[in-house]
Structure formats: C-alpha cells, structure tokens
Amino acid sequence: MTKEAYFWAILTALVWGIVPVLEKLGLSKVHPDVGLFFRCFGVIIGAIILLIFRFNSLSAAFGSISSRTVFFLVTSGFLASFVAQLFFYRALKVGE
Prior knowledge:
The protein is mainly alpha-helical. Helices cover 88% and strands 0% of the residues.
C-alpha cells in the first residue's frame, strides 16, 4: 500500500471516529427518523458541492458508466446510507 493510501485510510478512520459522537449528540432530543432525514440532507449538500467543483470530470464519467454499475452503486448507497444508518441511529438512541 502506498503512503497516499495510508494517508486517506487514516483520514477516513478519524472522520468515521468523530461522526458517531456528533450523531449521538444530535440524536439526544430527536427521533432517529428525524436524525436520519437531516443526515441525508447533509449528504445531498455534499453531493451538490462535489458536482459544483468536479462537474467537468463527473460529466465525462457519467457518460461511460453502465446501468449495472449504477444499479450496484445505488443499491449499496441505499442499504448503507439509509437502511443501515436507520438501524445505527436507533441503536445510538436506545443505547448508552
């Protein structure tokens, strides 16, 4: 593994380590479904920012992607970012 790969992996671990603390604090006074709604809103904002700053490279990539690839990515996004996140938020809400 290259040094750059380690850098990105460590940065990912740091962010993924901080986020559950923020989510636990955010869920302290709201229903998990409300928390998930606002988390998804944050993902939409991130996608818009990505589109704004990377439009040229993204538009070229969109034309070459297969429907099978789109299916797999959309399904994984739905399962990981919605279904699993909903389960995770319920666990954060009811757990100590």
